[in-house]
Amino acid sequence: MSIRRLPSDLINRIAAGEVVERPASALKELVENSLDAGASHVAVRLSAGGLDLIEVVDDGSGMAPAEMHLALERHATSKLPDDAIENVSSFGFRGEALPSIASVARLTLESRVAGADGWRIEIDHGARAGEGPAALPPGTRIRVEGLFDKVPARRKFLRSPRAEYGACLDAVRRLAMARPDVGFAIEHDGRRGLSVQPSDAPTRVAALLDRELVAHGLGIDCTRDGLRLTGVVSLPTFNRGMADHQFLFVNDRPVKDRLLVGSLRAAYRDLLARDRHPVAALFVEVPTGEVDINVHPAKTEVRFRDPSAVRGLLVGGLRAALDEAGHRSAAHVQAAAPVQWTSDLTRPAHPLSHQSHPRERGDPASCFYAGESSGPPAFAGVADRPLEFANYQPAARAEPATGPVPAFPLGVARGQVAATYIVAEAEDGLVIVDQHAAHERLVLERMRAASSGGEVARQALLLPDVVEMDEPDCDRLEEAAPELAGLGLEVERFGPTAMLVRATPAPLGKTDVPGLLRDLAAELAEIGTALTLRDRLDHVAATIACHGSVRAGRILSVAEMNALLREMEVTPRSGQCNHGRPTWVKLAHGDIERLFGRK
Ligand SMILES: Nc1ncnc2c1ncn2[C@@H]1O[C@H](COP(=O)(O)OP(=O)(O)OP(=O)(O)O)[C@@H](O)[C@H]1O
Ligand SMILES: [Mg+2]
Fold it and tell me: What is the enclosing helix (H) or strand (E) of 56?
C-alpha cells in the first residue's frame, strides 16, 4: 500500500462531506458569505427544497474577476488578514465553503464591484466549465444547481423537498435573527416564504418567532462577569413538543451548542415536563478571547473558556426572570380562558378532557392546555386526572357567601368540584384552582425551602419497604443515597437487585414508595453526573414532589381549601405546576359578564 497526496477535487469533495450536508447547509454558507461581504439585502430563491436550485443574490462588496478565481480555490479567504483566528468576527474564515459546494454541484458565480464590469465563472462538479462577462448590479449572485446529483450516497439521505425547504428556512431565519440590520427575502418554487426589512433586534426576533410569544414571552437582559444575555423566552405555560424553536447565538453567530441548550433546559427544569420545550431566542455576548469558534466545520458549535460562567449566566438569568414572572403564567390563561370556555359550552366533551387536542399555534387558548404532553405521560397521577374528571359523578359542595370578600388575590373558597378543583371568589372575579397541580408545586417549594436551610424532615416508615429494581437502578440510587438523605429520603442497598427504604420526606405525607423509587432511578439515569450537586438535588426534589401529591380526588374542608389558597399566594412560582401547566385560572368579572352577553 502506498501513501499518496489526494488530488484537490477529491479533497474538496471530502470537505464537502462535512460542510455541505444538505441544501440548507450550502445555503447557510452562501448567505453567510453575503453578510460577510457587507450586504444590506440578501435574496434567496430555491427550487425543490434547494435540491434543484439555490440562488443567493446580495448587494455586498462584490469581487473582481481575479478574486473570483481565488474564492473558488480551497483555503483562499479574505477574512483572516492577520492570521488571528481567535479574533475573527466574520461568519467565515476557513476558505473552503465555495470550493466544497462547487465540487458537488454545478455552480455559477457572478459578481461585480461597484464602478467595474461584472464577470461570470461556471464550475461543474469541481471542473471549470466556462467564464465571461456578466450583467448584474454591484454585488454577487451565486446559483447552485443539481446539488448531490452525482453523489448518490448523499442524495439517499436527503428528505423530501418540503423537509429540505423547512431546513433552508430555518437556516435563513437564524441568520436573519443574528443580523437584524440586513433585509432578507426567500422564495420557494415561486412562492414567497419569508421577507423582512432591516430593523432593530427585538422587532426582528418578534417578526420571526411565533406571534403568540408577544403575549407569552419574557424579555431577558442580564449581565454577569463580563458576559451578557439578551433576548426573549416563553413563559413555561407556552411550550412545544419539540425543541425546534430555540434560537441561540454567541456573539451574533447562530449556534447549536449543547452547553447552551442544556442550560436553557436546566432553567425550566421543574417548570416543564420532560418532553416539553420552551421557545427562546437568546443572544450571549462574550469577549472574543473567551470563546473558540473554530471547533466545528460548519461553525455551529463553539467552545467556551469558562463554560460554568456561561451556564451560570443562562440558568441564573433565566431562572430569576421566570421566578419573577411566577404568577404571570396563570394571568395569561386568564385572558385566554373565556374564549375556550365559551366554545366548550357547545361541545359535549368535558372541558378539560384529552378529547380536544391543543393546537400549538394560533389558538389563543392553547396555553390553557399547553403543558399537556402528547407522548406517554411523564408522571402518573397527572395524566389520568382528566379521565377521572370525565367519569366523575357531580358532587360539588358549596359554602354560603356571607359578607364582603376579603382582599386575597386568589379569593376565598366557595366550593369544590369533582374533588379536584377549588372554586374561589376573589374581589375581581372567579378563581378555579387545580388542587393537585397546586399542591404538587407547594410540596416542591416546601422541599426546596427545607433543603436550603439544612435537611428535609424525614418520616420513618414503621416497617422498611423493600423495592425490587434492576441492578443499574439500584447502583444509581445507592450512589445518590447521601443526596437523597438530605431530601428526607432514606434508602439503603438491599442485595444486588433491591433497595430498602427506611424513611420518606415529611412534606410528602403518605406516598407510593416503589413508584417514587422507580421515578427517581429514571431521573438519575437521565441527568447522569453532568449537573452540579445543587442542580441534581433540585431535580430530584421536583421528582419527589410530583410523586407526593395525593390530593387529586380528595375532598377538602373549607379550612383546607383556604389554607391551600393562602399558601399559594405566598409561594414563589406557584402559578404553574412542575410541568408548566397553570395551577389556577381566573375569570374576571368582565369576562363573566361577556360570557352571558351582558357586555
Ligand atoms: N457573496 C460574496 N461577496 C463577496 N465576496 C465573497 C462572497 N462569497 C465569497 N466571497 C469571497 O470568497 C472567499 C471564499 O469564500 P468561502 O465561503 O469559500 O470561504 P470563507 O467565507 O472565507 O470561509 P468559510 O469556508 O469559513 O466560509 C471569501 O473569503 C470572500 O472573500
Ligand atoms: Mg464562507
Answer: strand 53-58
pLDDT per residue as tens digits for the range 148-194: 988 887 877 888 888 899 899 999 999 999 999 999 999 999 988 89
**Cα 586 to ligand 2 centroid, rounded to whole Å:** 53
Amino acid letter, residue 116: A
Do 418 and 402 meet the contact criterion of CB atoms below 8 Å apart? no
Maximum separation of any 2 CA atoms in the chain, in Å: 97
Q: Is the CB of 538 under 6 A from ligand 1?
A: no
- 3-24 confidence digits (pLDDT tens): 888 888 788 777 777 778 899 9
Candidates 432, 443, 426; CA nearest to 582 is 432
- Burial class of residue 87, CB neighbours in 10 A (0-12, 13-18, 19+): exposed
Which pTM value belongs to this model? 0.65
For 383-391, which contacts have Cβ atoms below 8 Å and span 24 or more sequence positions? Answer: 385/420, 385/436, 385/552, 386/350, 386/352, 386/353, 386/354, 387/353, 387/354, 388/418, 388/420, 388/552, 388/553, 389/350, 389/352, 389/353, 389/418, 389/420, 390/350, 390/353
Residue with CA closest to ligand 1 atom 1 = 34
Nearest alpha-carbon partner for 313 in 391, 231, 400 = 231
User: Residue 450 in contact with residue 507, Cβ under 8 Å?
Assistant: yes
Cβ of 188 below 6 Å from ligand 1 = no
Q: Is 78 in the pocket of ligand 1 (CB under 6 A)?
A: yes
Ligand 1 touching residue 90 (CB < 6 A) = no
**Which residue carries 389558597 as its cell?**
565
Which ligand has its closest atom nearest to the C-alpha of 100? 1
Question: Ligand 1 centroid vs 297 CA: distance in angstroms?
Answer: 15
3-state secondary structure of 503: strand
Strands 53-58 and 139-145: antiparallel
Angstrom distance (rounded) from CA 153 to CA 220? 44
Q: Which ligand is nearest to the CA of 58?
A: 1
SS3 percent helix, strand, coil of the chain, rounded to 5, is 40, 25, 35
Residue 417 burial (10 A CB sphere; 0-12, 13-18, 19+): middle
C-beta of residue 57 within 8 angstroms of C-beta of residue 199: no
Q: What pLDDT digit, counting tens, does each position of 241-270 carry?
A: 778 889 999 999 999 888 999 999 989 887
